[in-house]
Design goal:
Blueprint: H1 3-20, H2 22-36, E1 43-47, H3 53-61, E2 66-71, H4 74-83, E3 90-94, E4 109-111
Parallel strand pairs: 1-2, 1-4, 2-3
Domain Methyltransferase: 44-113
Pfam families: Methyltransf_25
InterPro entries: Methyltransf_25 (IPR041698), SAM-dependent_MTases_sf (IPR029063)
Length: 121
């Protein structure tokens, strides 16, 4: 599957994504948050952040957490930006996981709901 195909699929489902996958999202992201053990001082990168639900979950407990989300779907990111526009410490960027626009060791914690990466990336 090409990046364009994946992007188009997620763009099409963006508006209904949170409702359709609510139970899965809630359970998966809660487990991810517990596993990642993010401290309030950590700079976090969420790869494949979709509609920003992981960011929302983290910010309900740590409203000053510095966190960046990346996703291939601009429509998913538009929803994430709308949800979390009141948090100046959160930003979202369009990029595929295979070509992240960040220097090495830019983050203390890197996560993805699809797989969980390592710290000090």
């Amino acid at each position: 599957m090409t990046k364009t195909t994946v992007r188009e699929q997620y763009d099409r489902m963006a508006a209904k994504y949170d409702r359709r996958w609510n139970s899965y999202i809630t359970n998966t992201l809660s487990i991810l948050q517990t596993w990642a053990q993010i401290s309030s001082q950590d700079k976090v990168l969420d790869i494949g952040c979709g509609t920003g639900e992981f960011e929302r979950l983290v910010l309900t407990q740590q409203p000053t957490q510095e966190i960046m989300g990346v996703d291939i779907s601009e429509k998913m990111l538009a929803i994430a930006r709308q949800k979390l526009h009141t948090y100046p410490n959160v930003s979202f960027h369009t990029a595929p996981a295979s070509a992240l626009p960040f220097a090495d060791r830019s983050f203390d914690v890197v996560v993805s709901a699809s797989y969980t990466a390592l710290t000090n990336c």
